Amino acid sequence: MLVMASSNTVIQTIIDDSKRGRVMSFYAMSFFGTAPFGSLIAGSLAKILGTPATLAIGGVSCIIGATFYLRKIAELQRIIRPVYEKQGIFN
Question: Rounded to whole angstroms, how far apart are CA atoms 69 and 53?
Fold first, then answer.
């Protein structure tokens, strides 16, 4: 939930007002539209491998995703900061 709220805030602050609706529709589709596919995959894996193995795979996937994000956060800050300064969020 924290990632969804944070990314939603960042996206809405850096997007031009004229394009916000379009961008937010893609954002909503990417989060809420892909959840059923993830559930389908997790259910299939649980049937084949068992629940503990499926949960372990999900946990490892989360750790890999967090590591990837941690490596990219400095670059994201570098890109977003000038936009925030232009909007007067950062001085």
Answer: 24
Give the model confidence (pLDDT) of 23-37 as tens digits. 999 988 888 888 899
Q: Measured between alpha carbons, how far is 75 from 71 in angstroms, rounded to an integer?
A: 8
**Contact present, 57 and 66 (Cβ < 8 Å):** no
CA distances from 3 to 30, 69, 86 (A): 13, 11, 24
Where do the domains of the chain lie?
2-87
| 18-to-2, 14, 22, 23, 87 alpha-carbon distances in Å | 26, 12, 9, 10, 15
pTM over 0.70: no
